[in-house]
Amino acid sequence: MKLRLLTIPAALSVLAFLGTSAHAGTEPQVKDASGDARTQQAGHDIVGVSYEVTKTVTKTTKTVKGKKITVTTTTPKNLVITLKLAGAPSQQPGVLYDTSVNTACGALELQSYYDSSAQGMVDYSNFAECGPDNTLAGVTINTYDLTPDVVFGADSIAYTMSWKSLPKEIKLGQTWDSPSAYTALADPLLGFDTVTFVDPATAIDDASGSSFKLS
């Protein structure tokens, strides 16, 4: 059951600060055909999921054997996971959006759904492992909880997490496996979805992709 400044060495002098790089522009790691949602509603129809790391780039200079050389430093800034849909995502009771991928800290899962007590959309986001062990009703849970910045766009849901907020086990260059996403009917009061609590075959739409390197 699912329970819910960059330091520059003194030997270097700053030449320029280039700010945060734009998204890498790589192809989505998950792709799905448009128009295959069972409800035939564009806001339920998954067309892709992308996993991107934005980076801060700085340039400095140092002197080596009497010559000045430029040193470029790239630092991860945010992990941005974007669920792309064929239309505007629903922000009404009855629908849940889920994205997941296997990482060095178990499954990273992100969900958005309507919560009646909050009178609006909420998110459930964590790594299945990497957190401290906690025992509840005899079950050990060690989820690593996240608090992403969630933005509902014209045809997407974007989850942005500071790189520093991720578990130390997460590093650039790692291979992440089995990226997937689904939309499902959900209880209008509690948000419990049919895929998790009834049958995976009840998904309104689902999609999956191949392994990829986080870069």
Average the pLDDT over all residues and give the rounded result: 87
Quaternary state of the chains: single chain
Q: Total number of β-strand segments?
A: 15
Order of helices and strands: EEEEEEEEEEEEEHEE
Question: Which structural class should the secondary elements be placed in?
Answer: mainly beta
- List the total number of helices: 1
Instruction: Give the overall shape, derived from the CA principal axes.
Output: globular
Low-confidence stretches: 1-24
Distance between the termini: 33 Å
- Mind summarizing the main beta sheet? 7 strands, antiparallel
Description:
With 215 residues, the chain is mainly β. The protein has one helix spanning 194-197, and strands at 13-20, 30-31, 46-64, 67-85, 95-103, 106-115, 120-127, 134-136, 139-141, 144-145, 149-152, 156-162, 175-185, 205-208, 212-213. The radius of gyration is 20 Å and the shape is globular. It starts with 12 loop residues before the first strand and ends with a strand. Residues 1-24 have low confidence and may be disordered.
